[in-house]
Design goal:
With 194 residues, this protein is an alpha+beta fold. The chain has one domain: Electron Transport, Fmn-binding Protein, Chain A (Pnp Oxidase, Chain A), CATH 2.30.110. 30% of the residues lie in helices and 26% in strands. Strands 1, 2, 3, 4, 5, 6 and 7 form a seven-stranded antiparallel β-sheet that branches. It is globular and about 45 Å long.
C-alpha cells in the first residue's frame, strides 16, 4: 500500500514538474481546483481572540487535503485535522470565519520555472468561508483525504482530541496570471475537475 501511495505522489510531482498539467489562465475554476489538489498545506487566517491580538488577523500554517494524491481524485473540499489546543482553532470557536491561501510555491513547479512565490504565474488561490467540524460520511472522506497525504497524523497524541473539519467555501479568488485576481463562484469551482 505504501508503494502505491509513493507511486501516486511521484506521478503528481512529475506532472507538476513537467508543467503540462497546469490549467490555462482562462480556466480559473480549474486552476483553483488544481492548486488546492496539488498543495499539502495552506495559510489559514482567523480573527484573533488572544489577549493583545484580539480582533487582528492571525495566520497560521495547516496541513490539508482535498483527497488522495493523483489526478482527478480531489473533491475540491479542503479538509483539516484540528485540535482545540491549537491557537487558531480557539479563534475559530468564537468566529468560524476564515480565509485560506494555497500556492504552487510549495510544489516544484514555480522553482522549475524560476517564479518567485509573489509572481502571478506562481498561482495562488484565496478561499474565504468558515471552518466546520465534519461527522458521519464526511468524517470518513476527511480521514481518507488527510491520512493518505499526511500519514503521520494517525499517530498524533489521542489525548489532544483531534477532529476532522472542512473549509466551507463561500468565495474564491485566483491569481494565476497578470491583470489581477479572478473571481470564481463555489458553483463554478465544484463543477470542474482539477
Amino acid at each position: 500500500m505504501a508503494g502505491l501511495w509513493l507511486l501516486c505522489v511521484a506521478a503528481a510531482v512529475l506532472l507538476l514538474a513537467a508543467g503540462g498539467a497546469i490549467p490555462r489562465p482562462e480556466e480559473a475554476a480549474r486552476m483553483a481546483r488544481f492548486v488546492l489538489h496539488n498543495c499539502d498545506w495552506g495559510a489559514l487566517a482567523t480573527l484573533s481572540t488572544q489577549e493583545g491580538l484580539r480582533g487582528h488577523p492571525f495566520a497560521n500554517i495547516f496541513s490539508l487535503s482535498d483527497g488522495p494524491p493523483g489526478p482527478f481524485s480531489g473533491s475540491g473540499v479542503p479538509y483539516l485535522y484540528l485540535t482545540d489546543m491549537e491557537i487558531s482553532v480557539q479563534d475559530l470557536e468564537i468566529n468560524s470565519n476564515a480565509s485560506l491561501t494555497v500556492s504552487l510555491a510549495q510544489t516544484p513547479y514555480c522553482k522549475k520555472h524560476k517564479y518567485d512565490p509573489q509572481n502571478p504565474l506562481c498561482a495562488h488561490i484565496i478561499f474565504c468561508g468558515s471552518i466546520v467540524k465534519v461527522n458521519g460520511i464526511s468524517e470518513g472522506l476527511a480521514k481518507k483525504a488527510l491520512f493518505s497525504r499526511h500519514p503521520e497524523m494517525e499517530s498524533w497524541p489521542k489525548d489532544h482530541n483531534w477532529f476532522f473539519a472542512k473549509f466551507n467555501i463561500t468565495n474564491i479568488w485566483v491569481l494565476d496570471y497578470f491583470g489581477g485576481l479572478k473571481i470564481v463562484t463555489p458553483e463554478e469551482y465544484y463543477s470542474v475537475k482539477p
